[in-house]
Amino acid sequence: MSDIKFGTDGWRGRIGDDYTYANLRRATQGFASYLKTTGRQGPVVVGHDRRFSAEHFAAAACEVLAGNGFQVLLTPGPTPTPVISYSVKANQAIAALNITASHNPPEDCGFKVRDQNGGAIAPDGLQAIESLIPSAGDEAAIHRISLAEALSTGRVAYFDPKPAYLTHLARLIDVEPIKRAGLKIVVDNMWGNGAGWMSEILAGGSTEVIEVHAERNPLFPEMSRPEPIPPNVDAGLAVARSVRADCVCILDGDADRCGFGDEHGAFVDQLRVYALLAYYLLEVRGERGAIVKTLSTTSMLDKLGALYGVPVVNTGVGFKYVAPAMIEHDAMIGGEESGGYAFRGHVPERDGILSNLYLLDFMVRTGKKPTELLKLLFDKVGAHYYDRIDVRLTDNAIKNAARKRLDAVDISSLTLGGHHVTELVTLDGYKFVMDDGGWLLVRFSGTEPLLRIYTETTDQRAVSQILADGRAMVGV
Q1: Residue 446 above 90 pLDDT?
Q2: Which pLDDT tens digit goes with each residue over 398-412?
Q3: Handedness of CA 167, 172, 173, 174 (dihedral sign)
Q4: Tens digit of pLDDT for each residue in 451-465?
Q5: pLDDT (tens digit, 9 = 90+) per residue, 339-374?
Q6: Domain containing 298 — which CATH number?
Q7: In terms of DSSP bridges, do strands 439-444 and 430-434 run parallel, antiparallel, or are they unpaired?
Q8: Do 370 and 394 sit in the same domain of this protein?
Q9: 173 in a domain, yes or no?
Q10: What is the percent of the chain with per-residue pLDDT over 90, rounded to a whole number?
Q11: Which of 359, 381, 403 lies at the terminal end of a domain, its last residue?
Q12: Residue 52, domain extent
């Protein structure tokens, strides 16, 4: 087995440590060998983010793909992940390779692979890629040609992915009412690939877009990482308060995740955003279809599904589970706790740009502010409260001890935050369902050395105690 492991969303590593040119070429060779086994014919799309040297890593990947006989379509600069994913469909490509570490810390880079639908490759496909990665030092197993040769022979060609994406976006949402609404919108790009996109899409009307963190800066100042949750979003929310914005649209480092702030510059957590998006599609747009959600996201979706008579499908954490389920069930929407949401008629991939536009459309169509939209939602399903703790774990002995403690938990008399546990779900991690319908999830991250402890409950006063009880139960 390879020492390069694909987690929740591809392979990520620390630049100069395990994420090196040599290892990148190995991973790309494994991907190329896997694509050959599919028998599909067509180009491969390659893109990258704004992280340190990402464009050079992308060029190295192109050399290997071209050396394996594939035609490569390379983006000319940093490109949002959803745009790269849509480019697969727009160009009848067989796959995409995206050099991005998404929301990871600045010292990391990543390697995301996408299938012929533009969505995440299912777990069995990722395992196949891993198995085909050459051993370290086996240079003879890696086929590559120089980028200069690949460009001169047409094996690699630059292409502009923007026109096709924007044309497709116009079929999904009419942005003219948003342009004419006279809103003041702060867009926090988190120094990432989304910079300039919202301004361009919403230009030409009375709505004003104020972009922050729009330059390239691989150090990600004013945040520990480009993840669209507090405290990383605090600086952008402060700008919104200072200019009295109507809302805040937040894009993570590769623009596939959505964050949101209300008219007071307060953060709207990602579980509430998912419920708002589902409610918007069901109530305002009148759509019907399955809702796909990871087990780490909101139970408000189950209540909406029951109210509107649509099925709700639960999956493990990560779009490698969500994307196949969306295709299988022709889902109306799919999403996860991290702020990634995908929509029917698009690609089975997270799109932070479209998610934010849908939230703006919700505001414009109803004439309501974000806090008023949340009141509408809570009138339907009741108020829900969420929080999360991330514990960094690099010691395998501590990890193993934590797992043993979790495996040994007896839920028959277990209480968390004063609520009795009624069920334990082990689909992905350890999810303790409580008597109020709330839950606590303890899960080891698939992308970083982190133990995540999450909770959602209808009992606002119990949130911090549930998390504390969960942490004590794990022993970290």
Answers
A1: no
A2: 899 999 999 999 999
A3: positive
A4: 999 999 999 999 999
A5: 999 999 999 999 999 999 999 999 999 999 999 999
A6: 3.40.120.10
A7: antiparallel
A8: no
A9: no
A10: 92
A11: 381
A12: 11-163
DSSP summary character for residue 8: T
148 shares its domain with 41: yes
How much is the average pLDDT of 176-198? 98
The answer as to whether 30 is a domain residue is yes
Do residues 258 and 348 share a domain?
Answer: yes
275 in the same domain as 129: no
To the nearest 10 degrees (0 to 180), the angle between helices 162-172 and 81-90 is 90
CA distance 209 to 188: 10
pLDDT for the residue numbered 1: 42
DSSP string, 162-222: HHHHHHHHHHH---HHHHTT--EEEEE-TTSTTTTHHHHHT-SSS-EEEEES-S--TT-TT
Q: Is 291 left (phi over 0), alpha (psi -120 to 50) or beta?
A: beta
Per the listing, tokens 């087995």 go with 1
Alpha carbon distance 185, 3 (integer Å): 45
> Is 3 contained in some domain?
no
Q: Domains in the chain: how many in total? A: 3
The more confidently predicted of residues 256 and 317 is: 256
Dist CA 383 CA 379 (whole Å):
8
Tell how strand 108-114 and strand 156-158 pair up: unpaired
Final residue of a structural domain among 134, 163, 192: 163
Instruction: Provide the token pair at 231.
Output: 């405290």
